[in-house]
Amino acid sequence: MRTAFKPSRRNFLKTSGLVIGFALPGAQRLAEAATPAEFKPNAYLRVGADDRVTVVVGLSEMGQGVHTAIPQLVAEELDADWTRVRVEQAPVDEAYKNPIFGIQATGGSTSVNGNWGPMRKAGAAAREMLVAAAAQTWKVDASECRTEKGAVVHKSGKKLSYGKLVAAASKQPVPKEPKLKDASEFKIIGQNLRRLDTPQKVNGSGKYGLDVRLPGMLTAVLAQPPVPGGKAVSVDDSKAKQVKGVRQVIQIPQGVAVLADGYWQAKKGRDALQIQWDKGANAGLSSEGVTKMLTEATQQEGKVARNEGSVGSASGAKTLEAVYEAPYLAHACMEPMNATAWVKKDGIEIWAGTQSQGPNQGILSHVGSVDPKQVKVNTMLLGGGFGRRFAPDFTIAATVLSKMAGKPVKLVYSREDDMRAYFYRPASVTRFAAGLDESGKPVSFTARVASPSIMEASGFMKLPPDGVDSFAVEGVKDVPYDIPNLRVEYSRQEPGVQVWFWRSVGHSQNIFFSESFIDELANAAGKDPFEFRRSLLGKQPRYKGVLELAAERAGWGKPLPQGVHRGIAVAQSFGSYVAEVAEVSVDKDGRPKVHRVVAAVDCGEVVNPEIVKRQCESAIVFGLTAALYGKITFKDGQVEQGNFDTYPMLRMSEMPKVEVYIVKSKEHATGMGEPGLPALAPAVTAAIYRATGKRIRKLPIDPEALKA
Amino acid sequence: MVTLNVNGKQLQADVDADTPILWALRDTLGMTGTKFGCGMALCGACTVHLDGAPIRSCMTPVSAAEGRKITTIESMSASRVGKAVQAAWVKHDVPQCGYCQSGQIMSAAALLASNAKPTDQDIDAAMSGNVCRCGTYNQIRAAIKDAAATLSA
Fold first, then answer.
1. Which residue in A64, A242, A652, A680 has the most chain B C-beta atoms within 10 A of its own C-beta, making it the best mutation to test that interface?
2. Closest Cα to residue A389, out of A344, A427, A350, A342?
3. How far apart are the C-alpha atoms of A283 and A632, rounded to whole Å?
4. CATH 1.20.1740.10, applies to B75-152
5. What pLDDT sits at residue A612?
6. How far is B153 from chain A (nearest CA, A)?
7. Mutation site for A-interface testing, chosen from B1, B19, B31, B36 by largest number of A Cβ within 10 Å
């Protein structure tokens, strides 16, 4: 047998004499006392005597490229030699708080947005200290020195690599306000540099949560209640315990766990459990019931999210009404949820692909009745996140099981367990009404959104006093079009299913709703959907910019092959603007085929254009998968989907050609993990409308409804 | 106890005969490069080669592998085709989250070992059993074509 994989223990949680003036708390505490071998000016980077630069990143790498983008920010201001830059995952610590969230966590497309300033500052401070060190060594003025590719260069031509300056640099005072470069001086930001995490992902050596192995560890598989809120009333584990390798059966609030030497034995044991469940209040839950509940709620007045002019007084020459619906969705990360916990005498250690190190530290300290400082979170690579790994269900359950078993426990969800563990994108219904004047210009726009509240479900937010969940209405509330009378309402409805953040959150369904309805208005006005939008975006240059670029690059208005039609949509989410044009045909069985998607993106200043493009393409695939196939449905309280046969994924043979174009922008950098998603579904369904004359108002797209 | 030939080595694994190769590799032999995605041969994350042919190790019991050769991602760099595929994956920076990529690479290497110049249709047929939730399909296609070009050069 091979040696068990031992996650590295990082030893830099030492105090430092260095003082550095960063906004991020804890930065100076994590800066290590200088040793001749290393220069460590702050928590975010180290320079070795071998010239190697290590950037320490507190954010989770789940494919979005943050383990490359953050090092680029640091390396730019450090003037590092990129070929000597490596990345290291940070522990959980105050220093690595997400500046936007105020706690260490990754999500909401915040990483580049929030760290654009702080990480550049971290690099710039180090650079100034290295320059000061070189100037001191040469006995020259620092103003006579410059830096390039990991070295300080004097005007005389003398040169010292950063590695030769680590001891002297460590003695320099830390500048409080280091000077940042002007964008025109960027050499690393804005470049298509290679991802730092690629090599370990092509040779199988990268360690995900599921790959953690500890000495004496047991693997747990959980029998979850078949209905949300269900409870086990009797458990017969005699057959489970007969399975070779099964060591313990433990009942916890989340279900009944079988602990065994490995996954296969634990799963066999779990499948052999005989459990009687009290299905509780949700035994009758059905998707038809959810649809009815949400749809009826949109017939009543809701809480006011936005109100401009007076929709009641605006009478259009033409009026339109439409009701749109989107289902619950699972994230279906390729790596099923899992966590390894070890509750020890002196604290808790956890290894997990998690998006929420900070929240987990707090939550698990309660679970284990220890001080938060005694909770150590080891962030592994994430085999997909999409918001799902922000949830603490799997880390909590693993910790409880380790505590009860007295051993390290790796809890593994099977694919079916993962898909049936809830934390879904909320189902939602929106009812629209609008009026157009004689010329076809919209004069009024009303939207009533009915859906569960993610804020209330999150455990760390509450509905604000106005009763409007901002996640439930984002993408409808902020329709950007120039319409004088506009009203958006929200009705919170709770069918009883745990809902959660899903890639692009409320925008994932709301942009489908609002952009589709805008397409309906354009059609009713007898106008081209691109021109119609453009005429209403006079006050929205960034929306208009991406809309025009996407249309231009897609060849909007130009002929297409027989049977292929275009649709267009535009969205802003997380501060980034994306327009997409989809080219779609529909076969005689009603099956849509997406041939090409052209996207235009404005996410402000760009750290790595190729990663921006890949993230946009990734979000397009995620959105297309949901539009074509995505639905979690309930019958008699039970989820009807379980694996990729019933919850299909887009595959290679269905992959459209994707082109992504980036608008040159001097706006503040914003994220791209999510914003490519929302515009996809409405662009596709608008194209389907042009191909078939049939308007899709409910996702996923039902080929039955599109049959010729 | 079963004896498995993995990457050219004879290894003993104390597992029941019905244990899928995947779990013998990961939990017993400590080789975690092969990934668990679905357990039902629906996603391809667990793809390994059995006597050179791609199989889903999550559904193939160890009993089916006795006397045969299992090849995993850990030894891909040892073969000419595997090395070319990995190099193309690096060149195109294919992975995002990376979790499915061991399986993608195993399927791609098996394709190129039997078909030196795959068409787009060949690639669709060989790769559509491998799901990538991050949507790297276009990069995978480009990397396969690149590796094919390298191998025929």
1. A652
2. A350
3. 16
4. no
5. 98
6. 23
7. B36
Residue range A527-537, pLDDT digits in tens: 999 999 999 99
Report the SS3 class of residue A308. strand
Of the partner residues B23, B86, B131, the one whose CB lies closest to the CB of residue A334? B131
Across the beta sheet with A151-154, what order do the strands follow? Answer: A145-148, A151-154, A159-161
Question: What chain B residue is nearest to A62 in terms of C-alpha separation?
Answer: B97
Q: For chain B, which residues score pLDDT lower than 50?
A: none
Q: Where along chain B do the CATH 1.10.150.120 domains lie?
A: 75-152
CA dist., res. B2 & res. B21, Å (int)? 11
User: Over the stretch B39-51, which tens digit does the pLDDT of each residue have?
Assistant: 999 999 999 999 9
Q: Looking at residue A3, what is its pLDDT? A: 37
Residue with tokens 């809309």: A547
Among the partner residues B37, B99, B137, nearest to A415 by beta-carbon distance: B37
Record: fold of A38-202: Aldehyde Oxidoreductase; domain 4 (3.30.365)
Closest partner CB to B123 (pick from A2, A62, A652):
A652
Choose the closest CB to A202 out of B38, B42, B105: B105
List Cα–Cα distances, A164 to A50, A133, A421, B35, in angstroms.
8, 10, 54, 43
Tokens at A48, concatenated: 């070795």
Give chain A's residues under pLDDT 50.
1-23, 25, 33-34
Residue pairs spanning A and B at CB distance below 8 A: 185
Which residues of chain B form CATH 3.10.20.30? 2-74
Which residue of chain B is at minimal alpha-carbon distance from A331?
B133
Query: Which of A3, A63, A650 lies closest to B96 in CB terms?
Result: A63
Domain range annotation of chain A: 38-202, 209-280+337-412, 287-328+424-706
Backbone torsions φ then ψ of A341, nearest 5 degrees: -120, 145
For A402, counting Cβ atoms within 10 Å of its Cβ (0-12 exposed, 13-18 middle, 19+ buried), the class is buried
CB A336 to CB B89 under 8 A? no
Tell me which chain A residues have a C-beta less than 8 angstroms from the C-beta of B129.
Answer: 651
pLDDT tens per residue, range A3-62: 333 333 332 222 222 223 344 545 555 655 445 689 999 999 999 999 999 999 999 999
For B92, which residue in chain A has the nearest alpha carbon?
A194
CB spacing of A614 vs B94 below 8 angstroms: no
pLDDT at position A142 is 97
How far CA A392 is from CA of A89, A222, A330, A668, B90, in Å, comes to: 20, 15, 16, 32, 33
Suggest the residue from B11, B12, B16, B27 to mutate for an interface test with chain A (most A CBs closer than 10 A): B27
**pLDDT value for A708:** 78
Residue A313 confidence (pLDDT):
78
Separation CA A148–CA A153 (nearest Å): 7
CATH class of segment(s) A209-280+337-412: alpha beta
Look at residue A630 in the predicted model and tell me its pLDDT: 98
Return phi, psi of residue A42, to 5°. Answer: -160, -175
Contact B93 A414 (CB under 8 A): no
Instruction: Domain B2-74: give its CATH code.
Output: 3.10.20.30
> Contact at 8 Å (CB) between A328 and A493?
no
**Chain B residues with CB-CB distance to A213 below 8 A:** 30, 32
Please give the structure tokens belonging to residue A590. 């009603």
Cβ within 8 Å, pair B131-A64? no
pLDDT in tens, A534-573: 999 999 999 999 999 999 999 999 999 999 999 999 999 9
Pick the CATH number of A287-328+424-706 from 3.40.50.300, 3.30.565.10, 3.10.560.10, 3.30.365.10: 3.30.365.10
